[in-house]
């Protein structure tokens, strides 16, 4: 792949062909605001819907503004990211998004963690510039785990990419056209009646609170405050490793002791651990592969018959 | 504890008893 020369805000950089303006800008420490864009490097998943138009920039010789997240660079391209035209367009885009977004940020599930809110704050928007029609969709809280409030959807399509391309569940897709477009389920069925497996990956990538977790915290408090109840808590093995990061510790810090102590002071009567069952699962899940491999290896060595490949072992989930 | 439960109760990993108690099977649940 050939290297090409790119100029971003006057800074020269060499990038491989196929690089987007956004990626090239990152290399020279130029930040272009984005909203719908999502690059999960670890699993090589990129959401390139280019639907929000927050990342528009000026490209010399091009009449219209270009979305930096989905526009590949070409040799000799001259990009300017913060011209008056680009900044004005960006602010208009966010203002328009806000015009069709509920204004209940103070009591919203995603308050202070919302990407739309952060963007509006970064841009210093201080009043709602446009007032117009608002989308109206009923809240879908049919399932035990996911709440869908499509009035908060900004059509970034990250959830769709996650659900269809990464998880291959195909529960979510875009329905309708124009202003009525909504990310929904087949035949608008409630989540509970679809093929959704409630993996939660859609809400993990949702920039707003259009997709959110069912909040069970009040139920837990009620149980703890009920004097007649003996309340036990059981944590999954991963929590002790993931939790520390939320409290500003190095990612991966093991906080087993702190976690148990905290759960006790919250008021749980007993704290249980899933470790034992998890270990048992590992033994059982690893066994078919290990024993089969060992068996075929043994056979091969004993009989000295040249064979290629080992027998494919069955998954424990498939055995009846 | 894991070693003990295999020695005293479950027999060998992926064995008959372990299968009966710890494993499940999969059937597609297509809803449409």
Give your account of this protein's structure.
The complex is a heterodimer of chains A (320) and B (32). Chain A is of the alpha+beta class and 320 residues long. Helices cover 32% and strands 15% of the residues of chain A. In chain A, the strands form five sheets. Chain A has a five-stranded mixed beta sheet with strand order 2-1-7-5-6, sandwiched between helices. In chain A, strands 3-4 form a two-stranded antiparallel ribbon. In chain A, strands 8-11 form a two-stranded antiparallel sheet. In chain A, β1 and β2 form a beta hairpin. Chain A is globular. Chain A starts with a strand and ends in a 17-residue tail after the last helix. In chain B, 50% of the residues lie in helices and 0% in strands. Chain B is elongated. The chains are: A alpha+beta (320), B mainly alpha (32).
Q: Quick recap of the structure?
A:
The complex is a heterodimer of chains A (320) and B (32). Chain A is of the alpha+beta class and 320 residues long.
Order of helices and strands of chain A: EEHEEEEEHHEHEEHEHEHHEH
Which bin fits the share of residues in helices of chain B? 40-55%
Largest sheet of chain A: 5 strands, mixed
- By DSSP, the count of extended strands of chain B is 0
Number of helices of chain A: 9
The oligomeric state of the chains shown is heterodimer
- The rounded distance between the terminal residues' Cα atoms of chain A is 50 Å
- Main sheet of chain B, how many strands, which sense, barrel? none
Which key phrases capture this entry?
heterodimer, A: alpha+beta, two-stranded antiparallel ribbon, globular, disordered C terminus, B: 32 residues, mainly alpha
Give the topology, please:
The complex is a heterodimer of chains A (320) and B (32).
Chain A lengths: L2 E6 L2 E6 L4 H7 L10 E3 L4 E3 L8 E4 L6 E2 L9 E4 L3 H16 L15 H8 L23 E3 L9 H9 L6 E3 L6 E3 L16 H5 L5 E3 L3 H9 L6 E4 L3 H8 L9 H11 L3 E4 L1 H29 L17
Parallel strand pairs in A: 1-7, 12-13
Antiparallel strand pairs in A: 1-2, 3-4, 5-6, 5-7, 8-11, 9-10
Chain B lengths: L1 H9 L5 H7 L10
